Amino acid sequence: MDSVKLEIAATAARMVVEEGLEYGPAKRRAVRQLGLNARSALPDNDAIEGAVREYIELFCADTQPAELAALRKLALTWMERLAQFRPYLGGAVWHGTATRLSDIYIQLFCDDPKSAEMALVDNKVDYEARTVTGFNGDSVEALSLSSISRELGEPIGVHLMIYDHDDVRGALKRDAKGRAPRGDIAAVRALVENGVA
Asked: What domains are there in the chain, each with its CATH number?
């Protein structure tokens, strides 16, 4: 990777870890902060993830593992509450690069797209519905809520992405590194119980 992309990746990684930005906005802001042309070639998400891991290892090695464990525990709580909707955890919390500023992203695979929303209503959970781009590039409904992490002592954003039941096959395709892009309840429980990063 060329030096400009490396510099963008390092700057974006700092923003991801210190400010909780998602990769896309962090890359664009890094370009502006570095005074580069807005059309500069951007590093891919794998490069950003690598830079995030390096940043965490250098500057957050003493705090990040406990923060990640707390986020995974909270994610598992929500996955168990919503088990009937076949939940899968994705994003930084699944991949092990999350800090206390990271949100939790759970994909639900429903027979009826409104059923998950009705479950939140029935349990008097406050949420905000919006439309976002899903993992397959299509628009999907996201139900966003705030949930307190006892371990961290603060509210964490939890985003429930609603997919059709048949989308689960595409959700389990391995990434370019051969990793599972998301994990089900059993996989997340194993991470929580074994303290895996």
From this structure: 3-59 (no CATH), 64-194 (3.30.460)
pLDDT of 13: 97
Q: What residues have CB less than 8 Å from 137, skipping those under 6 apart?
A: none
Q: Taking the chain, what is the end-to-end CA distance rounded to the nearest angstrom? A: 26
* Angle of the 45-59 helix axis to the 23-33 helix axis, nearest 10: 80
Splitting the chain (197 residues) into consecutive groups of 10 residues, what average pLDDT does each group show? 90 95 94 92 94 96 96 97 96 94 95 90 94 86 96 97 84 78 94 82
d(CA 149, CA 62): 19
Close Cβ partners of 152 (under 8 Å, ≥ 6 residues apart) = 67, 70, 71, 100
Q: Give yes or no for a contact between 40 and 1, defined as CB atoms under 8 angstroms apart.
A: no
Q: Taking the model in full, what pTM does it have?
A: 0.91
